[in-house]
Amino acid sequence: MKRPRQFGPLPHVRYRPELQFCPHFGAPLADSHPVWAKPVQFLTGVEHLTNLGYRCGNPACPFPRTVDRSARA
Ligand SMILES: [Zn+2]
To answer: How far is the CA of 31 from the centre of ligand 1 (A)?
Structure first.
């Protein structure tokens, strides 16, 4: 049986959304939760990437459940 690949300790890179403010309300976005996290193999090496989800920090926003994430990630 094929054994899972061992990467060892990896450099951690965290991606945040490109938007800093809610497009509906203009309030600053607040850190909510990591959307996904996994090791990614590039031609130049391996990094452990985390894509962080942000939500509108204003409780009066009409879209409080919308999660903004990084397009680059
Ligand atoms: Zn909002």
So the answer is: 13
